Amino acid sequence: MSFKREGDDPSQLNILKKRRVADLLSNFIPEDEAALMKNGRYTCLVCSYRPVFDTLDMLALHRQGKRHLEGLKWFYGKKARFQNEVEKRRHQDYIQAEEHREENANPAPLLTETRKITHHALLKSTPYNSCHKTSSGWLQDKSGNWIKDENVEFDSDEDQPAPLPP
Description:
The protein is mostly helical. Among the domains are: 10-64; 72-119. 47% of the residues lie in helices and 8% in strands. The strands form 2 sheets. A 3-stranded antiparallel beta sheet has the order 1-2-3. The longest helix has 39 residues, at 66-104. The protein is rod-shaped and about 120 Å long. One of its GO terms (biological process) is mRNA processing. Keywords: Ion channel, Ion transport, Metal-binding, mRNA processing, mRNA splicing, Nucleus, Spliceosome, Transport, Zinc, Zinc-finger. Residues 44-69 form the Sodium channel modifier 1 zinc-finger domain. This is Sodium channel modifier 1.
């Protein structure tokens, strides 16, 4: 299957390259194991010393050799390690994206309410609530005494509110 070129016709060169690619595919040689060079020769991408072959038959013969088979183990081992590393990094990026999304997302309402109740239960004093019922209609002055709010209507039997618990 040796193809000899006559002249420098670029279209002829392209035809020969296409024919060689077809030959390469017909012999079931994976694309990542061999490459077609610019000059029309083949090179083995598995072997570290990158041997160059004139014909596809020579490449096929090389692929059965001991050095190539050893290189094949190394080549696919390296490829598997690389793929494993890529998957690890994708997974780490996914985990970071999920953590970032969880930080920005609103937590569940029940969880929020539970945290709020727990927080208030652990406080040493009751937090101030302007809507408290021991102060409806009563205002506290600067000295801490309770005075009646002028804008609120009172029942006649209502006394001063009890002080807030400490």
